[in-house]
Amino acid sequence: QVQLVESGGGLVEPGGSLRLSCAASGFTFSDYYMTWIRQAPGKGLEWISYISSTGKTIYYADSLKGRLTISRDNAKNSLYLQMNSLRAEDTAVYYCAGERTMFNGMDYWGQGTLVSVSS
Amino acid sequence: DIQMTQSPSSVSASVGDRITITCRASQGISSWLAWYQQKPGKAPKRLIFVASSLQSGVPSRFSGSRSGTDFTLTITSLQPEDFATYYCQQANSFPLTFGGGTKVEIK
Known about the structure:
Helix content of chain B: under 10%
Radius of gyration of chain B: 13 Å
Largest sheet of chain B: 7 strands, mixed
Mean pLDDT of chain B: 97
Helix content of chain A: under 10%
Number of strands of chain B: 11
Number of helices of chain A: 0
Oligomer: heterodimer
């Protein structure tokens, strides 16, 4: 069955870095556009980054631009998010999500990985 | 950026009730809107895409509609498993944006 499994979250000090991973299975990963979305505790959903199926087109939320790098390895069915200069306000559950058809919203979501930024 | 204004932020309803949730886009997004349901501690699940297309496996009591830049999610005959938070999301352009969410609670 379709699965997206995030990993790499955890507790990190302000100013630190983390690399999140998302392992895909059960579908043709290379056909999907992929997105990272986060949700701060008790808050709504916030889109943070997008990568096209080939990896050639990338977008970031302006509020996070310069601190994020999204990438994918279609041979490994994996999506990544490198996050640098982390701040307390980056504390959230980070979801990866996949979209087969542009403009349709996200078909599949992972279960999320929690990133906590605190000293 | 396109702002999505979702209302109400919460609604109390009983099993069997009909409820309506609205999202208004700050500019035209054609029909590129999706609706999601999220239960506590779980990932969101898509219910509706392209404003009114029902996701496979989603019960027919869920429906979506569009009128200009106003979008509506309707749940007819609310069931116990429908108590959750609902979000709209515009898929027209980057940055993708979500509505603030509507929490559907048991009256």
